[in-house]
Amino acid sequence: MASAYPIDKSQLHDSDFQKWADISFNYSKTDVYPGVVVNEPLSEEYVNNAIDILKTQIMYGGYRLNNLLQSIYGSNKDQLVFELL
Question: Residue 55's domain spans which residues?
Answer without folding.
Answer: 9-34+41-79
